[in-house]
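Appendix B. One record, verbatim.
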Amino acid sequence: MEWADLEALRITGTQVHYLQVCRRKLWFFSRFITMERGNAYVEQGRVLHQQAYGPKLRKERWLSGLVRLDYTEKGVIVEIKRSRRVPRGARAQLLFYLYALKRYVGWPAEEPFPITGEIRYPRERRKEEVVLTPETEQEVEGWIREIQQVTALPKPPEVPWKRICASCAYAELCWG
């Protein structure tokens, strides 16, 4: 395994999601500054997980301590999200999980591509298929490099205020 591979093993799905949402949030989270506890939106997501998929969530898995799957169903990795408000982040997180499973765990062993997963939005009764292909695998590798750059910064990056900031758990820390 190369050094770059070892460094990539330190990346989590949450970091990949945060890269898509806000680089500042990613920077804080990467330094173990977490503001999620007690945030109404985060708590709603936890409750939704339990209500919609309670018995299945007992099948959650940790792989290398970095990949936490909501559950698998008939060989499909399933990621549950509260809403489609940040679809790019949800898609990126699931692609990272599929990438990590293929690259570091060797799953699935029988066919290298495509590897599929599914994002489910129970409140909206919607689901979205996500496929790891050679192209999306390169995209994930680019995100890993970006995350390494952001987390290496000596101070949090400057970011513009966006509408999503109003409901972010880190809003008070960023905007006072």
